[in-house]
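Researcher: Next sequence.
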Amino acid sequence: MAEGLLDGVLGGEEEKIDPTEGGTEPIVAAVAANLASQNPEVAAETVAMFRKQTEVLQVQKKKLEAEYQFFEAEWNPRLLALRLRTGFQVFFALFATVIGIGLAIVIYQAVQSRSVVIDPIDIAPNLSAEVPSSRILAAGLLDVLTRIQAATRTSAEHRSLSNAWTNDIAIDVPETGISIGQLERMLKTRFGHDQHIDGDLVKTRTGALALTVRGTGILAKTFSAETGNLDKLLTQAGEYVYSQSQPGLWAAYLSNNDRNDEAIQFAQAAYTTLAPGERPYVLNYWANAISGKGGDGAMAEALPLYRETVRLKPDFWIGYNNIMYALAGLGDEEGVVRVGEQMIKAAGGRPGRAPEYQYQNYDQEVWDLPASRAGQIADMETHGGIGTTGAAGGALNLAVAQLEVQMHDVEAAALRLKTTPVDEKNLGDVAAAANDRALLAEESGDLKAAAKEWDAFEVAYANPTISTSNPGYICYAAVTYEKTGQSAKADAALNPVGKLSLVDCYRFRGDILDLRGDWPAAQQWYAKAVKLAPSVPSGHYSWGVALARHGDLDAAAAKFRDANLKGPHWADPLKAWGDVLAKQGNPKGAVAKYDAALKYAPNWQQLKDARAAAAKQKP
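Model: Next structure:
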């Protein structure tokens, strides 16, 4: 019987059921008919059970329909409210997070703040009609400080200068009634390290104006001037405040603006009271002021100060550069190379932690002209288009023009000279411009014009400020003078040899002796130049050029090889080496040297012509 039941329910063939009939009644009838053939009682009970289940299902259907209608009517508004509530919660959470982050940033900035803040300056009641408001007076003092700072050519950190109303944003903090700016000032006052400056302006019994300034860590000082000369008072007060709040930058300002005596006096008086972090900077510009004044013994006096800056601050890269500057001025060019190598090691290689422009004295000794040019351009770009060169060096753009001439890029050098204003009152500018024009004329083959420019340079060189900072430059004039028939001037240009030992002066003396037909004596001076500074390539190079001129090509090639080893980024020895190889019937080797030279002097026309000729030459 069980098998019959299963067969009937699951697919027995005794009776076919039309599945298209709707509702549960056809299904009940079909089941009942199937069971009736087996057991009528079971069939009746089954029908009754199915009918009760159908009634239950109908009741459940109506209930579900009612619940769905309720859901449609009630749930959507509740869902919208839930979504809105969640959205507002997320919004306020994000808003609170932003406020928290903003407050954290403000607190952090307050803790890190080390600004010089000019607060209102009190004005005596009897001056209210003659003097602007205290706010305008404070702004005038701020203007003086800002001008001084803008004129300070230095890589030292510039502390920000502000007045009491800077960044005063007119937005109230909820439930406090104070502005964002006021809140920021409160936090800086509590947690920061700002240096606040205030003061007062009164009229003396004689009718003069007396301005007193004081501040955090700054002793009060009074400055007097006649009525109507308020600008003078503000300038004097501003310089005093700047010197007391930023002594390192003040020393730089004095030194860079040819106020060397004041810089020396300030540094001597202030040094023992300085914070340790300020001392390397003040020492550096103290030494700059000494070398800027020039004269016998200036570099020897400045050198220990430069060395002390590096001892106090081992990563004081400008100190390394200035040690090299002093050593070059003292004629110790081999020492320059050694210090440059120490700097590279201390900086963790090159490029490394030291700015590239701080290698300028090292690069000039090893004739890495592309690196020196790139470094000095970067110096100008990062220091307001001026760079960190002091007054004795002239405008840094003129130094770049000199490098371009030495890289044989005539057009670039001529354009830079044409577009660089020369301050005729600045002796450094005058000397640098004359030097550039002389070298450019020589490069173009106009020796007479070059000689005239060397005459102008010689006038500037007579000033110890120029001769101390650039001792060997006058020696470049010697060969031009000799070639233009001015032997007496050539000998005079080499006078620094009597006081200083310089590779350029030695090698150019060799050139002059060779021009005069004294080849044995010329070779002695070339040998002296090499011995004086074996790591400097220019002595090797000049000796090689002379040997090639005398037909000793193998010896010349050996000297050019040495010069390239000492100065691998200097194009001239590579080009001269290629010339020798071409003469020796090795055009392939010559082209290789010319290609190597073109990396460091890509716009040298003679080099391009030589390469083209060698490429056409048959091996």
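Model: The CA atoms of residues 8 and 14 lie 7 Å apart. The chain is about 65% helix and 5% strand.
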